[in-house]
Design a protein that fits this description.
This protein is mainly beta. A 12-stranded antiparallel beta barrel has the order 1-4-5-7-8-9-10-11-12-13-14-16. Strands 3-2-15 form a 3-stranded antiparallel β-sheet, with no helix packed on it. The radius of gyration is 19 Å and the shape is globular. The two termini are 17 Å apart.
Amino acid sequence: MKTVIGLCLLLSSVCIAQSPVNGFMKKSGEGSVVLSYSKESYSKVFLVPNEINGVPTFNDVIISSVSFFGEVGVSDNFNVVLNVPYIRAEGNASDAVLANNGFENERKGVQDLKVYAKYRFHTINFEKSTLDFIGAAGIETPIGNYNADEDLQSIIAIGNQATTYNAFGIATFKLQSGFFTTGQLGYSVRSNEVPNALLSELKIGYAASKFYVDAFVANQLSDDSGVDILGEGFTGFFPATRVNYTRIGVNAFYPFTKEIGVTAGTNAYISGRNLGKATGFYGGLVYSF
């Protein structure tokens, strides 16, 4: 089990809308890098008060991304995490809508640099299990020259052009048999009129010597400073909308060698506010050292 944990328990950062950090620590000098591809699509939108069929203006949307992720152990109890995605969002608006409004069916580019630090400040050892307590904090800031203020064109914007400061408390319970559960709770402070948000995630999984799998549920609850799309106070500036969601999914990893492995997963939004009802998948190549 220790081998698999050292190789692959970085999956929470590969998949969109999971936590940017996970509940496991790499040892000093060890690390992993992942090159992944993800794709999600939606033709329904969670608005207030009802879910609607068809994405306004663009009918349906496909979002694909290529992401570079890395995590390294500075010490056994201190890790650094980095993530940079390149994102492409595609709409399906008609030629007439595009011509009449001056819109385009595509937005793409490098999105935000995400840098996090994790520190394990306490471990409780039981006879056949351990309980780790971890604190994490990080910043996400735009590095791509993308636009988030294009009125309805921003439905397919690739980001909010906001700098975000996140902090998490994490607890991970691991059994010698390979089963584990991780829970985390965090808060996100955001610029550019993006509402601050409470973040949480629960993950249950199994890590054996040659296989890893987990199931997760992730949530975001924005504060009430945001507005609803097409609701009172909405001016067409989409970053200011109040975005809530619950998302579920499954991740898996298989190591071919000590250094090389593959990861894949699938996920879906099951409830939300002011966002698309998306389903998606990802796959990636993992190198561990």
